[in-house]
Amino acid sequence: MSSLPPSKNPPMEDQEEIWASVIKEIIRDIPPDWRERVICEVMTMERPSLVIKATPFVLRDPGTFRLDNAKNEARSVLIQILVSAITNSHSPEGAAKVLFKRHAGLGHGSGWLPDYLAGLPGIQVNEKKCAALADKSVASKLRFAKVAEDAEA
Predict the structure, then answer these.
(1) From CA 139, how far away is CA 146, in angstroms rounded?
(2) Can you tell me the distance from the alpha carbon of 31 to that of 123, in angstroms, rounded to the nearest whole number?
(3) Around Cβ 33, how many Cβ atoms within 10 Å?
(4) 131-137 — which CB contacts under 8 Å span 24+ positions?
(5) Where would you tag: which of 21, 69, 105, 138 has the fewest CB atoms within 10 A of its CB?
(6) Rounded to an integer, what distance in angstroms lies between the CA atom of residue 43 and that of residue 148?
C-alpha cells in the first residue's frame, strides 16, 4: 500500500488511460477477429478475483506526472509479471527456451528477445547461447494460427 494519501494519485481517468494504452499494444497482435472474444474470456476468468487482486497504478511523485513515463512503467510491470510467470513455471533452461524463442513475423521488430536486451546497461547477452536455446525450442503454435488465418484471408 502506498503511504501517500489518495488525493496525491493521478485521476482515475489518467490511470485508466495508462493501462488501456499498454493493453492496446498487447492486443493489437491478437488476430482482429479474436480480440473481443479474448478480452471477454479474460474478464470472465478474472472477474471473481478482480476485487481481491486489483492494485491501482500509483505514481510516487504526482508533481512530475507524465503520461509517457507512466505508460513505460506500466509496460515494465507487465514485462516483469510475464517473465516471472515463465521463470516460476520452468527450469532455468526451459524458461530460457521460452523467452529466447524466435518469433519472426509475430509481434514487432525481429521477434527475438535477445535483440532487445543486447546493449542494455547491466545485461550481458550471449547471443550464441540464446540462439542455441532458441533452436532447441518447439515451433510456435501461435505462428501456425496466424499463418492459417492469413491463408484464409
Answers:
(1) 13
(2) 33
(3) 10
(4) 131/100, 133/93, 133/96, 133/97, 133/100, 134/97, 134/100, 134/101, 134/102, 136/97, 137/97, 137/98, 137/100, 137/101, 137/102
(5) 138
(6) 27
Three-class SS state of 103: coil
What pLDDT is recorded for position 7?
A: 43
Q: Among 109, 111, 77, 113, which Cα is nearest to 95's?
A: 113
C-alpha span between 40 and 38 (Å, rounded): 5
Calculate mean pLDDT across residues 119-140: 87
Whole-number Å distance between alpha carbons of 127 and 115: 8
Element (H, E) at 142: helix 141-152
User: In a 3-state reduction of DSSP, which class is residue 61?
Assistant: coil
Residue 28: the pLDDT is 82
Query: pTM of this prediction?
Result: 0.67
The amino acid at residue 42 is V
Q: What is the pLDDT of residues 37-91, one digit of tens each?
A: 988 888 888 776 655 555 555 555 555 566 777 788 888 888 998 999 999 999 9
